[in-house]
Amino acid sequence: MGAKKETLNGIGLSKEDYAGAPSTLCRGCGHNAIVNQMIAACYEENIPPEKVVKFSGIGCSSKAPTYFLSRSFGFNGLHGRMPSLATGALFADTSLIGIGVSGDGDSASIGMGQFKHVMRRNLPLVYIIANNGVYGLTKGQISATAEEGLALKNQSQNMYMPIDIVWEALVGRASFVARGFSGDPKQLKDLFKAALHHRGMAVIDVISPCVTFNNKDDTLHSYAWGKLHEVALHELSFVPAAEIVTVDYEKGQTAKVDLHDGTHIILKKLEHGYEPGDRGAALQLLEEANRKQELVTGLIYIDPDQKTIFDIDYLPPKRLNRVPAEELRPSRESLNKVNALMV
Amino acid sequence: MAEKKSVLEPVVNDFSITVGTVNGSGSQTANLTLMRAFFKMGIPISGKNIFPSNIQGLPTWYTIRVSKDRYLARSETTEIMVAMNPASFANDLDKLVPGGIFLYADHIKEEINRADVVVYPMPVKELVRESGAPRSLRDYVANMVYVGALTHLLGIEVEKLQEALDFHFGGKQKPVELNMKIIKKSIEWAAENFDQASPYRAEQMDGTDGYILATGNTAGALGSIYGGLQFTAWYPITPATGMPEAITKYRPFLQEDPETKKYKFSVVQAEDELAAVGMIIGAGWAGLRTVTATSGPGMSLMSEYVGLAYYAEIPIVIWNVQRMGPSTGLPTRTSQGDINQTYYLGQGDTKHPIFFPGSVTECFEFGWKAMDLAEQLQAPVFVLIDLDMGMNQWMTEPFQYPDTPIKRGKILWEDDLDNLDWEWGRYLDNDGDGIPYRTVPGNEHPKSAYFTRGTGHDEYANYSEDPETWAANLARLNKKFELTRTMVPKPEIHSRDGAEIGVIAFGSTDPAVSEACDYLEADGVAVDYLRLRALPINEDVVDFIRSHKRVYVVEMNRDGQLCQIIALEMLDQATKLISLTYNTGLQLTAAWVQNAILGKEMK
Ligand SMILES: Cc1ncc(C[n+]2csc(CCOP(=O)(O)OP(=O)(O)O)c2C)c(N)n1
Ligand code: SF4
Ligand SMILES: [Mg+2]
Q1: pLDDT above 90 for A315
Q2: Overall domain count for chain B
Q3: Are residues B288 and B275 part of one domain?
Q4: Which atom of ligand 2 is nearest to the CA of A137?
Q5: What is the rounded distance in angstroms from the CA atom of residue B347 to the CA atom of residue B277?
């Protein structure tokens, strides 16, 4: 048997090096697209798997981290409580890239509190919500992102207004907010790449159909509806630091966003002529899209310079978990002083 | 005017003063100043704040016990009462011992129906006005009038008061002067108007040499910092809040990097206890030394994550500063009611080590020891104190610098993995003690990464629903727990000649139980006292129970939770155990313990 020649990326790794355990999700599940595009994005961006930490809550979506990057540490936490787990863990070594995967039940219902609070702290984390409008893992209950009127098998009809994750992320002051669609893998990969390079909270609401429980052609989280109604905001490309000088982009038709690590996002404007730097405009865009029954996808908001939780002045050394034990304890003299203060 | 009475035998350094005030009226400054002045005179004291769940308006009491014999539990009797609150006036008067002294603010126009006490009205408003205190501050400084009156009455040294005020205001001259002015004026007024000498006297002694005054919350905070704290996340709840607040307060002083001016550890005020514990679990998992503090209701919110941390083997330390009852219960009253909750917190089979500090000094010691144990065991470890120890100032021995280096447990970094002569698996019990080796994120060795989960997993952290694998893993976790019996602090045993019966207690009740043991001996009932310092119990506890005819287990909850836990672990001895529970929200007293045991023994 002749060895198959593998294509290696810039750091000498093959795509295999980014693989995870075989997926146990249903065939055709939107979450599988997330898994595949995350593998491709990390591979193409030359990200060492050892520099990534994965987090998730509970749900089919939250299983996804098992299926990519098995050379990275990962923690499958509690339902709705992934953000707190990631917050604590990322303090341990701020040179790591955090990737969190959650579901609409996980983040928009049980975990809404942690979701909102991690936004305002601007924790550097790629926060993917695989949004299928349904609780997959518990077999098909209506979720908080489901559209009003949605009727699912064996479930009563949804009577309430849906929660829009992108809207919530914007209002929560996340510094990077995007929407993707599992039926548009190319854009998904580009969004992942941009998010991986962003320094701050990068929320990506991915419409990720549940083929088993919520994929009827006329429902909001189905492949068919998405394909028919998707309106991409831009043609998005991602340019590594070294290549920016060689990229030819038309000003006016294109927006360029400079990220903290020297990389750039190039956004070629499409019909909306939209630029993602204004939170108010972003909210307006969502309202309009709602009215017009459009599924707008792409980078909806970005502020590459917003302060992160680590920028706040109490940030300890970069790799706090490597500080030697001897350096962790204040001196004996200092305790004498403390005692002397208490008489 | 009070009826004249003969001067009684002087009682030196052995009495209790209770001050009844309105919550939010600023009496804390006055009370702490008084307490510290006694302390500086060398007289052993304790101070108990009995306060309502309210910011302003409801009655609150502060009791200072002055005890030459160093009996520092709450006393059931009050020899001197200061009544500043019309709402509690009648009751306060009622509580005073015959022959006691009753001071009150003279704007309170209530009936005084006791002839067996000495009564002095104090012209509080007048004295404050005359002192020239600015109108805006008058309410805050009014309490200094009773400080002055007591100073005259008891013979407190004025310089010590001044020192105590200096301490309280961190050397700020203006407030010290203002308060001193009122104190001095009130002393003068008392000298002119008190028509008889008080039998109760405070006299300089050397009973506080080598002691400090501190709260358990501060001690726990410092113990954690000296335990190498790197990350804490918390959510406010009485009576635990003081601990993270103290951590934050001491951070610039103790853990600022001189070069970068950055702090060496991080503090995040979380959105709730679910997030607080999630954050420290993330941090603990990733190799940071972590701690949080909460109380019963917060513990409930943390329970889901604690169950996961137990199973996923993540080191964290949680302080439960217990208060009485549910949310809201009696949030400002003390209790030892969360023992069962804490011991078994989680889902399925969970059991956790618990430290029970019996003094503020021990809060410091167990602060760093709990962090060591958590990392050694790779498990959640709890420290249980209560409102009384957490929030009140206790006279206590100075904090001792840790006598062992920080223990990080079994962590493998890149070089370690390179040099292993066996194949590492995250949950592989290579040493046979039940404790596996762990790696943490940031480790760049290609074999270091693993996936942490609450789902079933094998020794190499692979997903598994295999029945044998699950059972074997839980058996290993129990092996770890059994090992902790030898790792947690041993009990402290105080024996007396000829004692056939024993008493077991823990935590803040230590002063009351020790005092009661002295009284019981005088009553002819010798009792050996075992102060439990941790769960799970170890051989010393077992031997103690085996070697006594009867053993009383004293605790501040309704159901005798500790007694139940011990009984379950020593079923053959269970009939020897007698549960004595005190469950009012107030601190235990020696008199209660003495009567409870006598009541049983005299049957
Ligand atoms: C505290 C708690 N409550 C309930 C559950 C049960 N549960 C597991 S997954 C899930 C819903 C998951 O829905 P979603 O986050 O949308 O993920 P999906 O499966 O749709 O990808 C629920 C309710 C749980 N694991 N924990
Ligand atoms: S049930 Fe739905 S969400 Fe879960 S794996 Fe299947 S398709 Fe995906
Ligand atoms: Mg879902």
Answers
A1: no
A2: 4
A3: yes
A4: 4
A5: 16
Q: Is A212 in the pocket of ligand 2 (CB under 6 A)?
A: yes
Contact residues for B309 (Cβ-Cβ < 8 A; gap 6+): B277, B281, B284, B316, B379, B380
Same domain (yes/no): B218, B128: no
Determine the Cα–Cα distance for residues B410 and B427; give it in Å rounded to an integer. Answer: 12
Answer whether residue B402 is part of any domain. Answer: no
Length of chain A: 343
Of A129, A134, A157, nearest in space to A145 by CA: A134
- What is the pTM for the complete model shown? 0.96
Question: Which helix (H) or strand (E) element contains residue B96?
Answer: strand B96-105
Residue A148: how many other CB atoms lie within 10 Å: 11
pLDDT band at B5 (very low <50, low <70, confident <90, very high): very low
Matching CATH number, A24-318, of 1.20.120.550, 3.40.50.300, 3.40.50.970, 3.40.1190.10: 3.40.50.970
Q: Does A11 touch chain B (CB under 8 A)?
A: no
Evaluate if residue A48 carries a pLDDT over 80.
yes
Residue numbers of the domain that contains B422: 410-489
Kind and range of the H or E element at B138?
helix B138-141
**Residue after which a domain boundary falls, among B458, B489, B520:** B489
Confidence of residue B287 (pLDDT cuts 50, 70, 90): very high
Predicted ipTM of the assembly? 0.96
Return the ∠ at Cα A327 (arms to A324 and A330), rounded to 5°.
Answer: 155
- Give the list of residues 6+ apart from residue B381 with CB closer than 8 angstroms, or none: B315, B316, B317, B318, B352, B353, B354, B355, B370, B371, B373, B374
> Nearest chain A Cα to B248, which residue?
A314
Same domain, B73 and B163: yes
Distance, in Å, from the CA atom of A75 to the CA atom of B439, rounded to the nearest integer, reads: 13
Please report whether residue B564 resides in a domain.
Answer: yes
Residue B345 in domain: yes
Average pLDDT over residues A151-156: 90
What pLDDT digit, counting tens, does each position of A54-82 carry? Answer: 999 999 999 999 999 999 999 999 999 99
Same domain, B374 and B286: yes
SS3 label, residue B203: coil
Q: Is the CB of A29 under 6 A from ligand 2?
A: yes
A residues 61-90 near B, CB within 8 Å? 65-66, 70-78, 81, 83-90
Q: Could you tell me how far CA B538 lies from the centroid of its own chain? A: 24
DSSP string, B238-256: TTTTHHHHHHHHHHHHHSB
- pLDDT, residue B91, reads 94
* pLDDT number for residue A247: 62
Nearest ligand 1 atom to alpha carbon A103: 15
Residue A95: Cβ within 10 Å count = 9
B273 and B231, same structural domain? Answer: yes
Same domain, B517 and B566: yes
Q: What is the CATH number of the domain that holds B111?
A: 3.40.920.10
Report which protein residue has its CA nearest ligand 1's atom 12: A59
Q: What is the mean pLDDT of chain B?
A: 95
Among B446, B470, B489, give the residue marking a domain's end: B489
B208 domain-assigned: no
Q: Is A77 in the pocket of ligand 1 (CB under 6 A)?
A: no
Q: Is B463 helix (H, G, I), strand (E, B) or coil?
A: strand
Task: Determine the length of chain B.
Answer: 603
Quote the strand ranges of B177-271, DSSP E.
Answer: 200-201, 212-214, 231-234, 266-269
Q: For position B537, which CATH number holds? A: 3.40.50.920
The DSSP bridge partners found for residue B291 are B232, B317
For residues B102 and B243, membership in a common domain is answered with no
| Residue A55 phi, psi (nearest 5) | -135, 155
Q: What residues have their beta carbon closer than 5 A to ion ligand 3?
A: A 103-105, 132
CA distance to partner chain B, nearest, from residue A208 (Å): 24
Residues B474 and B387 in one domain: no
Residues with Cβ within 8 Å of residue B556, at least 6 apart in sequence: B334, B335, B336, B337, B386, B509, B581, B582, B583, B588
